[in-house]
Amino acid sequence: MWSTLLEYHTRKVETFEERNPPAIMPSTPPKPTLLTLPSEIRNTIYAYALSHTNPVLATFDYVFPTRFEQTPIPKLYFQDQDILAYYPRPRDGPGRILEAEANQLRYVCRQLHVETNGLSLRYNDIVVWHVGRVGGGLAACSIFLSSIAPRHHKHLRTVSVMANWLEDGLFSEREIGKLVTGKLHPYLYEFCRNNTAATLESPFTELTMLRLPTHPQRQPRSPIPLLYELKEPKEIDVSTFYAQRIIMQEWLFASVSTYRSYAILTTLHRHILIHGLSSLQQRIADLVNLDLQLYHKYCSLLTDEEVGEQTYAYAGLVWEVSLEAEMELMNREHLEWLLCEDAKMYERVASSVRRWKGEVDGRIGRRRSEQWIRGRPWEV
Fold first, then answer.
1. Which of 121, 127, 73, 78 minimizes the C-alpha distance to 102?
2. Domain of life here (predicted)?
3. Sign (positive/negative) of CA torsion 336, 337, 343, 345?
4. With CB atoms 3.0 to 4.6 Å apart as the test, which of 57, 172, 316, 340 could cross-link to 77 if both were Cys?
């Protein structure tokens, strides 16, 4: 009887379990990690994470401050403010704005170190900070560019150098010429020549090295692309206008033509070039008129015999002044070319004026001497 009841109960339980099977709980899938995502998605994340609003600060001076003689290791630092606005107070030092490295993902693991290598250079503008230990901002930039892998050079967009004229030796036209011809800082010259899409600029010297030629070129006789050009604002303040206008006047009316360097024009604002060209052409027009007046005065001092012996008539120099409206439509290359050509014309007209003035003064002097001699008897 007992066995019969036990079998009955067992069969009843089995029947219940067959009719009501236990619910199968779904297993929770594992959450995806960064490294399990497809490479295309990871690259998008890298671009978003490593792009900064302000330019990143490139420096190598803070890596081994006590062992600076060793090979420098470049590093990029994120900054919470624009270095261009902070730089006029260099005495505070750059340490206050060095928040953290721009690419901290490379310290997570080896795979992220490999995949994010060089991305901060690709997605950000670079500011090279100079703290006075390597001889100038351009020298610091040369060391920085030479210390990063050449394969990253093609990804650079804009490199700003914290430099000034005195620290970098750019206080003379000769030194500026050495810079743009590769004799001074040759690595920067080669970098600009091999990476035409990148811009190497110095915002405080107003000098931008762009499209350097692949071979030496002579002085142009027609407009050509700039060897280096001014990164100029649309407007110019009063003090800068008057300072650059003085430089323009010294360039225009230099006593020796060799002092008239083409490199100086590229450091001046476009408004200054137009103002200088207008004043130069007006001066040339006045000298052309004076040249013809001196010739007519010279002819009036000739005797009848000398007039009969003269076999030519001087017609003066041909000169045409450009309209100011035309100058406004010219680009920088055309303005600089016209300034160089008109400066040569100015020397030619000034030389002709001096020649006729000498002839006129000589005639007047001889006539006065003759009148003085005729008015006084000779003493025997």
1. 78
2. Eukaryota
3. negative
4. 57
| Residue 56 and residue 77 in contact, taking contact as beta carbons nearer than 8 Å | yes
Residues 6+ apart with CB under 8 A from 302: 310, 363
* Alpha helices by DSSP H, 257-331: 262-265, 270-300, 304-309, 324-329
From residue 231, how far is each of 15, 201, 235, 353 by CA, in Å? 90, 8, 12, 39
What values do phi and psi take at 192, rounded to 5? -65, -35
- DSSP character for 27? P
Sequence ranges of the domains in the chain: 37-216, 233-301+317-374
C-alpha distance across the termini of the chain, in Å: 187
Taking residues 340-365, what's their average pLDDT? 85
- Give the mean pLDDT of 285-293: 86
How do residues 238-247 score in pLDDT, each as one tens digit? Answer: 777 777 888 8
The per-residue pLDDT for 281 is 84
Q: Cα–Cα distance between 79 and 347 in angstroms, integer?
A: 53
In a 3-state reduction of DSSP, which class is residue 220?
A: coil
Residue with tokens 């994340």: 45
Q: Give the span between the Cα atoms of 207 and 109, in whole angstroms.
A: 41
Burial (CB count within 10 angstroms: exposed 0-12, middle 13-18, buried 19+), residue 369: exposed
Among 127, 129, 135, which residue's Cα sits nearest to residue 90? 129
Could you identify the residue written with the tokens 């919470």? 80
Q: Report how far residue 380's alpha carbon sits from residue 377's, in angstroms, rounded to the nearest whole number.
A: 9
